[in-house]
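Deliverable D5.2: sample structural annotation.
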Amino acid sequence: MSEVAKFFREVGENIEKLKGADELREKSKQWVRDVGPYKYPYNFTWMGRPIIQLPQDIMAMQEVIFKVKPELIIETGVAHGGSLIFYASMLELLGKGRVLGIDIDIRAHNRAEIEDHPMSKRIDLIQGSSIDKGIVHDVHQAAKGKGPVLLVLDSNHTHEHVLEELRAYGPLVTKDSYAVVFDTAIEELPKEAIVDRPWGPGNSPMTAVHAYLKECDRFDIDTAIDAKLLISVAPQGYLRCVK
């Protein structure tokens, strides 16, 4: 066995041990809960634009993109555009692919910043509800003939909305790629931590993931990503397409 193979075998063994580290996992969940009031994920940028993600999830997405090498990344939820620019920069390094961002309200100042960014050459924007039938049709048309396709859901975090997004766009995800559902960690927050939002524990992306997995056998939860990250806004949200 080569030294490189030995290293990655050791990494695999480390991850397997972490799967059983229940106490450490609970500490990690508590850390995510504790930093919430400080808006910790808002502190980071990618190539100058706010990305609003935990660094651990940014690293995980980099690994997923390099592994999948997608021709198309579909993301619902644009916000400041940092994640779109991050994905586009990964595709630029790979030398192929486009990012399609969908949001019900792409604010003028954010659109201007995205369109003025060097990575905009790999980004397309659609304004409208991600579960609107017309928008779904347009996305399916954009994905026609493309592969691999990677899906990222990070818009409205209610159970109903995320489940409809999974039903609408899950079929576009190609085998061995991923559907990544962000903010599943909402399910693990205390109810009082969610203020003036329609979502919360019991009505969250995680409940939508579990409902979708019951009706669709094309995906399973990549528990290795959960185990090695420990700190994440997307526990049980990295869904690997297995068929």
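Annotation notes: The longest strand covers residues 98-103. The radius of gyration is 18 Å.
The annotation will be released with the project's public dataset once the embargo ends.
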